[in-house]
Amino acid sequence: MRVRILGCSGGIGGRHLRTTSMLVDHDILLDAGTGVGDLSLAELALIDHVFLTHSHLDHITCLPFIVDTVGAMRNKPLTVYATQATLEIIQTHIFNWAIWPDFAEIPTHEAPFLRYETIEVGKPVRLGGRSFTALPANHTVPAVGYHLDSGKSSLVFTGDTTVNDELWKIVNRIRNLRYLIIETAFLNREKQLAVISKHLCPSMLADELLKLQHAPDIYVTHLKPGQIELTMQELEDDIGEYKPRMLQNNQVFEL
Fold this sequence. Notes:
Distance between the termini: 5 Å
Number of domains: 1
Order of helices and strands: EEEHEHHEHEEEEEHEHHEHEE
Structural class: alpha/beta
Strand order of the largest sheet: 6-5-4-3-2-1-14
């Protein structure tokens, strides 16, 4: 299993800043933020599955464009996987004919460009020997993270979350955990904002990592544009012993 980072920024503002999305092998997306826009038409047409963590715009921006752009180039629907709550938000507020056409009905109800698949926390979805399991997240809207397992090793992406004891109970049972990608959206001086918006800041991440019983490589995502260097310095000061690294566009993880 090959995971390529298409976007990992908490915002936009330059060619190197793309919001959250990961390409797994050639056919699966994990979230569909603005990073998807850098893929070619041929690459977009190969995507069969999209797993969503939650419905916030920075994680779904390109989903409507993917299906509109390459739907007619494909011979089967694009399948979107998410919790029932997230799918209801997407259907009600995005694919509703007011914001974007309902591609679950286009070109026909019997042969649409888009279909939905409901997932549940803790229940794996297996695709060609690859396992995707939703993990609990604690955010302002219904949200999950994901455990990606190739059979040889695993990657955990927390998605957007704040303090989350349930997550660590599950993560600590993953024996082949190799990579942990976790968010840190705010500086320490903005801790109250992090709490209100259900994100993390460096001091909060430090407390969360005390619950981790493994020693995976740790990568930090969702850094805010204009605050990247300062946030990474605070992470070094607060949790340097964990050696957290900044997640970067086009970084590749082999599982």
